[in-house]
């Protein structure tokens, strides 16, 4: 039986307008009514996941910032991760030649040294405002302990930055293409899959008792963890090949899960 359903947000549970369709809302409710726990897994901040949870009227497990923070539905924090020392500052500075827009994240804050027109334009995609903090780079490693750095811009420049980061900081940072124009820089060994594994251990669940759905490269680690994995139909082929199934929506994956459980119950 599948007891936990894990969903990515952007371009998965969220549509292009960052809204949740009525079909997907009903599907989440149907899973909850069937006694299946819900987990949201996203590169977004935890308070954004809490906002989505409240919109859907439930208590969900949460994996935020690509696994840097993990919470149970009861609010118990299982993990909080951040970059060592002033590494985040060096990473931010290494991106300067590529002309990308950078954001420095802590658990529930997203900071920039200055709010530019590009920052304001990108901010509209977020659920909470970005904070201008002119001294943010100097404070990294003291009063500011970043858990994620993301850069948004041209995908070609992003891939160049990804190569530069791994050459300059081998083994000290993990990178994920988390959207069509976004790269996330993370502390090593932090991922949605690692966060999900920690949650499963806490809940005493096995991977085969879990289903998950996502669409991007930061979802691959969790797609690989369970045999009941779904990639969104619009995902890149490299993402789709890591999942057992493809789906056009969260509702389609949820229907499959409910049918799977119904068949399992008949065979029990």
UniProtKB/TrEMBL annotation:
GO (cellular component) term, any one: cytosol
As one GO molecular function, the record gives:
phosphatase activity
**NCBIfam families from the entry?**
Cof-subfamily, HAD-SF-IIB
Official protein name in the record: Cof subfamily of IIB subfamily of haloacid dehalogenase superfamily/HAD-superfamily hydrolase, subfamily IIB
* Species per Swiss-Prot/TrEMBL record: Lihuaxuella thermophila
């Amino acid at each position: 039986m599948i007891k936990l359903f894990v969903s990515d947000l952007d371009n998965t549970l969220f549509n292009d307008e960052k809204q949740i369709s009525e079909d997907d809302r009903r599907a989440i409710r149907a899973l909850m009514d069937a006694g299946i726990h819900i987990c949201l897994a996203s590169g977004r901040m935890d308070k954004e996941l809490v906002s989505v949870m409240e919109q859907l009227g439930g208590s969900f497990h949460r994996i935020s910032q690509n696994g840097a923070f993990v919470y149970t539905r009861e609010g118990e924090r299982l993990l909080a991760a951040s970059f060592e020392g002033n590494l985040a500052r060096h990473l931010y500075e290494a991106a300067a030649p590529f002309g990308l827009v950078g954001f420095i994240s802590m658990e529930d804050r997203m900071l920039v040294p200055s709010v530019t027109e590009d920052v304001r334009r990108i901010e509209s995609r977020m659920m909470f405002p970005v904070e201008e903090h002119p001294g943010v780079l100097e404070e990294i490693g003291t009063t500011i302990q970043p858990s994620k750095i993301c850069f948004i811009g041209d995908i070609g420049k992003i891939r160049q930055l990804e190569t530069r980061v791994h050459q300059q900081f081998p083994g000290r940072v993990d990178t994920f293409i988390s959207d069509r124009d976004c790269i996330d820089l993370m502390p090593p060994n932090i991922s949605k899959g690692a966060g999900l594994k920690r949650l499963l251990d806490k809940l005493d669940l096995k991977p085969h008792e879990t289903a998950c759905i996502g669409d991007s490269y930061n979802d691959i680690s969790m797609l690989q963890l369970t045999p009941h994995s779904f990639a969104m139909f619009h995902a890149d082929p490299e993402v789709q090949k890591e999942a057992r199934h493809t789906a056009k929506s969260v509702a389609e994956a949820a229907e499959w899960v409910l049918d799977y459980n119904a068949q399992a119950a008949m065979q029990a």
